[in-house]
Amino acid sequence: MKKLILALIILVTFASCQEQKIGFVDNGKVINEIQEKKDIESKYETINESFKLRADSLSKTYQSEYQILQAKAATMSQSKQQEAVQTFQAKAQQFQQMMQKEQQELQTAYQTDIDSVISKMKTTVKDYGKANGYKFIFGTNESIGTVLYGDDASDLSDLMIKEINASYKE
Known about the structure:
Blueprint: H1 2-17, E1 21-26, H2 27-33, H3 35-73, H4 78-131, E2 134-140, H5 157-169
Parallel strand pairs: 1-2
Helix pairs in contact: 2-5, 3-4
């Protein structure tokens, strides 16, 4: 009986001592170096610049209209002035709402695209881990230190960047 217990303890000890593959990925580094994310940022930067130029142009048009309205108001009756100002304010408010809606749509589209990249990264890490026998792959970044130390050999960040970029080019 003692030999059986001793054999069982030795077996459990050997089983627990088996080396498990564990790695980690610096999420921030991977996300920031993925080509698809860089392309998305470039795309939205261009769209945002175009939006700003259009908004500035329309804003200048409204300022010009307001100055003309002020000059004309001096020759109008008080009721006509109020009517003209109210009409202008309604038009200006509509413009502001349109710009805010458009900007919100841009932000939502950008976030959706970035979320897609993050999802692809997670899927790639998961698939890589399964295919290569990893028991765990931890994620870390500068602000959330889930991995406080990791041997460089266990850092899969550069490998994940290459994997993701390779699938993006396809």
